[in-house]
Amino acid sequence: MAACQIMKIYKFPEPVLRKVAEPVKEIGAELQDLIDRMGETMYAAPGIGLAANQVGELKRVLVYDLTPRTESPSLSVLINPEIVYGEGEIVYDEACLSVIDFSAEVSRKAQIKVRGCDRHGKPVEVEAEGLLAICLQHEIDHLNGKLFIDHISSLKRALYKRRLNKMLKKGEDAETMQ
């Protein structure tokens, strides 16, 4: 496999983060390359999940890996994922590679079932709870043009936007704020 290149992770308020990703119709070499580059980008960030929107690709693809950093990585891929079932509630302090210098408690479904395809087009079903359920809901939100800050109060969101605008006016580099 050729050396992968790290992709740019788009930051809020970039418009691509608000667009709905298109379903993947063809799984070929180009998509495999995108998946590999997304995986490398996620590990380099470092993060536990990454949706294609975050790297400027409007395709319904996400990668994730909740393996502890002390163990060998185990990249998981979902193509055209959809949540088909959810129940219960879990609150977790979420952050995002596309939302700089901010985290907030978000309420999500505690258990979910997701259907999609693996990187080879084989149908898969993932039953998840805890952090995996949170991660999958967070990344699927990205594919639907949503960010975790859409799940917090309008006051907290407005305060974050104001603080972000001040940082950007000061010319602070977004990469150094993470």
3D structure, described in words:
With 178 residues, this protein is of the alpha+beta class. It has a single domain, classed as Peptide deformylase (Peptide Deformylase). The protein has a 5-stranded antiparallel beta sheet with strand order 1-2-3-6-7. It has a two-stranded antiparallel sheet with strand order 4-5. Strand 4 and strand 5 form a beta hairpin. The protein is globular and about 45 Å long. The protein starts with 28 loop residues before the first helix and ends in a 9-residue tail after the last helix. The C terminus is likely disordered.
Amino-to-carboxy terminus distance: 30 Å
Q: Could you list the spans in which at least 5 consecutive residues all have pLDDT below 50?
A: 174-178
Average pLDDT score: 93
Overall helicity = 25-40%
Order of strands, main sheet, comes to 1-2-3-6-7
By DSSP (H or I, 4+ residues per run), the number of helices equals 3
What's the gyration radius in Å? 16 Å
Shape: globular
Q: What multimeric state do the chains show? A: single chain
Specify the CATH homologous superfamily: Peptide deformylase
Percentage of β-strand residues:
25-35%
Q: H/E element string?
A: HEEEEEEEHH
Overall CATH class: Alpha Beta
Q: Topology, pairings included?
A:
Layout: H1 29-44, E1 49-51, E2 61-64, E3 76-87, E4 90-96, E5 99-108, E6 111-117, E7 123-129, H2 130-143, H3 154-169
Antiparallel strand pairs: 1-2, 2-3, 3-6, 4-5, 6-7
